[in-house]
Amino acid sequence: MKKICMVLPPFMRYPNKKGCAVETLVTIIGEKNEEQKKIDLDILSGTIQLNFIDKILFLVYRILKKLKISFLYFHRYYYKIFRKIVKENYDYVIFEAGDLQRYQVICKKLSSKIGKEKMIHHMHMVIEDGQEEIVETFGKFIGVSNFLITDFKEKYEVEDSNLKVLANCTTENEFHTISAEEQNLLRTKLNIEKDDFVVLFVGRLVEDKGIYELVEAIKALHVPRVKLLILGSTFSENSKETKFSKKLKDSIKDFEGNIIFTGHVSHEEIYKYYQIANIQVIPTICEEAAGLVAIEGMLCGLPIIATKSGGMIEYIDDKCAKIIEKDEKIIENLKESILELYNDCEKCKMMSEHAINRAKKFTMQKYYDDFVKIMEEWERK
């Protein structure tokens, strides 16, 4: 049995407490392994014991990072992890997400100590050009989509045998069905009428997520019964306004009745909001690795409208989703797709049934089994 160590950045926790995607995925592997013990696994996270000086230095580090002050910091959290990994003599060490460029000092030191072939980088986002130190430090790579792996291969020279795809999943046990009465109460709380057609957006209010284009599409519909429910943080007086946030705020003026912001929703409550929606829209306008929101939507039986973006289209198909181009016609394409589903209840029903079935391809058990399979395949190499 291989001895594996998974390392989270210092600001993440295991077990998952905040609903962060990476923390959630690592927690799934950890909890499944506690039950089934298919591998010898340690998970190191921000819960690792730090002394008082460590905590002060880490606080200073977080403040400087927030202020975007660049500096070389031999992070004491990673130094403690370095000592533990060397002492335990793991077969593989997997670094999950995090600002690996900033921590290359400790990663390179660890790589030279235990061997590059034992170092694994689990990629949750696109790796940009100019990060050659990553392939000099890590010998193996896991990506959340074929798109991500292909993109990585085009930029860096890595043997195919050292590249693996591990598709994301979500915590399906937390997405249990709420009653019709609970759904009605939540809709009432949000000023959503019984006959309203709810279009759900889940994500950060940043330009790349396509939220502006979706808002413009909703405005262009001129259908009062169509409501856009934006699940996530709304504009706050304490938030620093950006050029994009101002543009978005100006866009929704006079349409507040049709565009509803929930504000922050805790991880434990998020599944309820999926269940009061009629469809989900994922209008990403960049090429991103993949996300959990499509799996969550399918799990709740939501028909999906999504742009042809990166690894996202590997998680959905044309039976549960309408996949559109993210070109200059994106607003019109979004508008027409929403209108089509609004006017076709039967199609929505069929898409919903297929979405529920497709979600079964991304279960927690399959995620754990696929992770173990990757470890076993590398062990036999």
CATH architecture of the largest domain: 3-Layer(aba) Sandwich
CATH superfamily of the largest domain: Glycogen Phosphorylase B
Number of helices: 14
Mean pLDDT: 90
Strand order of the largest sheet: 2-1-3-4-5-6
Helix content: 40-55%
Strand percentage, roughly?
5-15%
Shape: globular
Sketch the major β-sheet: 6 strands, parallel
- By secondary-structure content and strand pairing, the structural class works out as alpha/beta
Domain unit count: 2
CATH class of the largest domain, named Alpha Beta
Oligomer description:
single chain
- The CA-CA distance between the termini, in Å, is 15 Å
Following the backbone from N to C, one meets helices and strands in this order, namely: EHEHHEHEHEHEHEHEHEHEHEEHHH
Poorly predicted runs of 5 or more residues: none
